[in-house]
Specification:
It is a single chain. The chain is mostly helical. Helices cover about 40% and strands about 10% of the residues. The strands form two sheets. It has a three-stranded parallel β-sheet with strand order 4-3-5. Strand 3, helix 2 and strand 4 form a beta-alpha-beta unit. The longest helix has 23 residues. The chain starts with 6 loop residues before the first helix and ends with a helix.
Length: about 170
Amino acid sequence: MKAIGAYDDVEKAKESRKVRTGVGKIRNRRHTMRKGPLVIYKEDNGITQAFRNLPGVTLLNVSRLNLLHLAPGGHLGRFCIWTETAFKALGEIYPSDSLPRDMMKNGDLTRIINSDEIQRVVRPAKAQRRPAIKKNPLKNINVMVRLNPYAKIAKRAATLALLKRAKARAVAS
């Protein structure tokens, strides 16, 4: 790894070992660690024993190539180290006529969606109406009046009675 300049990535993965947050610690998943380089080989001539002590380094046979190993967590761009035999075997596994083809010629999806040709045939977006906030009729008299028109008269009568009692109390004292 040091000879090809990949040991920095091994060190980066090794230093990333942290204690997991949450209950996973109790369930025998105490530590988390970043993925390191992926070494892809064809024949195991002691390569698994040579790399098994390096933390973060993953070894994979070329016949078992997997998107989960090439792009862990859906993040593209994992550092892959290919052995020469593995690279040659790739041509046998995927002959030139059966290579996976692109579904789209232009991969810039936002540019395609926002193009004039597409926008011309797409119906316009509807204006979204926010739902009305429910108001408490016991605290808001206008909402209470809308529910019960007599509430305005009853509240006014209660206020006048309160004022009348207060006036009578003031005269008495």
